[in-house]
Amino acid sequence: MKKSFLFFSILLAVFFVPSSTFGLGNTTTCQTTLSYYRACVYGGTACSTGWTESSLACSNNTAGETGKCCEKSTQTTSTGNPSSTTTSTSASFTYTPLEEIPGQGTTSDLSSYIKGLYSFSIFSVGIAALLMVIIGGFIYVTAAGNTSNVDKGKEYIKDAFFGILIAFGSYLILYVINPDLVNVDLSSLSKLAMVGGSGSSYTEQSTPVKGSGNGTCDPVPSGSCSVESLKSTCLASNAEAFSRLCNKESAGAVNSSSGVDICSNYGNASFSGGLFQINVFSNGSMLGDSRCNNLGSKGTCANRRASDGVCLGWNCQLTAGNANDLNYCMGLTKTADKNISVACQLSGNGVNTTPWACSANKCGLGGTSSSFCK
Amino acid sequence: MSFFKKTLLFTALFLIIFGVIAYLFLKKTSPSNTTPKQTEETIQLNKQIESTVLPEAQLIDKGTYLIQEGKQEANSPNPDYSIYYFQETGQYSIVLLKTPLEETRKEAEEAFLKQVAASGVTKQDACKLFVTVQTIASVDEINSGRNFGLSFCPNAKNFD
């Protein structure tokens, strides 16, 4: 009996080491949390005013540089940019709990609170199991030959160990199924906002990018739309999702043009292009060049495919004298930085995939499917 | 069965379950890199190709070269296909921009093989390179976002 307990103690000790290593610890890389906006900056760039340099590690960027991790409290009203080139934002859900969790200190966000509750419940299970082992042992040694009590004592001890096994095993099992189940990362969620001035209805301001679809879009492996590269942009908070979206839209080809957003009456010139297939009629003003502010509109459909109703060409209505501007602005969409900058503006820095609803839906990244999508 | 035997049995089961979970955990947390690791052989092949192909290619983005484009029809905003090379990862990206995709893939593959053949790289060697064959949503929404591979290589997939 004593040998069995000793053996179990060693077993549990072995089990405890990886368990404590696996999780519930602090994130050691430069990632946005509910308490801090964080972003890596590279090329010797200093953190901007209002941002402080953190000791957290930054992964190498595509050029192999190790950057500085700039951070800023989510309590501040404006995120701003950590440097002149990178931003990273997320929603914050901070509050002050009425009562702290024993042994966990005061938590200020929901994610830490849930983790604290889990840790506390694990401690509770351990203490309860120890108590039950003691009670079982006591019944066992005082059985004085009564086989019923001997069995009862053994049952107590056995059940206590099963309880411990289940409690500790749950973390590993959940982690194996999906690490996000135990990370409790709520940074990708956005706040609800009231829209409309007079009504009392609420609507979601944005669509979460991690949808439940069954899409099969791969991330772009190389170039400006690769996950690693997007991590150093304003899409950092959802780099992988937007890399997949980029793959769907342009296959990561920076100079690609749309095959359907074309002006039939202007030599089949495209009006959407680049990594995220930015539409220059709808979003030209986001390119940061006055020539793209008012290019015109795509007009009516000139060539509709009978099989699925998709419009393959439009009777574009360009603002007078803007034919050259259309080409110029399309050129801007084909520069990676400009294109990603517009994607950031459209998506709220990687939060909202609605502007690419069809592709996002097909990739399982939120969005909606409609008759408009093929 | 004695308590000691039960304990042993329980311990054995525990260790087996723990071992399986630990194995799955380690397997799952190994870096999920979509970029295949370049071997000495592929690095050598890429060097050969770079020396002949890159001087003729157009640098369109940081480390991204446009190697070749297919013909462009008068009523089309795009060429039939584009072939890119990403120097940092040694990836060749063949983007198909005309349907039917199967025909365009064949056409693009021929052009790609012709390009690399100038560097002494054979059809068999081409399968050792990191090559993706894809299309974009505005050309084919169903098939975009996925890599279909070179049709003559083991990782080739059919279009839907």
Fold and architecture overview:
The complex is a heterodimer of chains A (374) and B (160). With 374 residues, chain A is an alpha+beta fold. Chain A contains ten helices and nine strands. In chain A, the strands form four sheets. In chain A, strands 1-3-2 form a three-stranded antiparallel beta sheet, with no helix packed on it. A two-stranded antiparallel ribbon of chain A has the order 4-5. Chain A starts with a helix and ends in a 12-residue tail after the last helix. By secondary structure, chain B is α+β, with helices and mostly antiparallel strands. Chain B contains four helices and five strands; from the N terminus they run ααββββααβ. Chain B has helices spanning 3-29, 40-53, 101-117, 123-126; strands spanning 58-61, 64-69, 81-86, 91-96, 130-135. The longest helix of chain B has 27 residues, at 3-29. Chain B is elongated, with a radius of gyration of 23 Å.
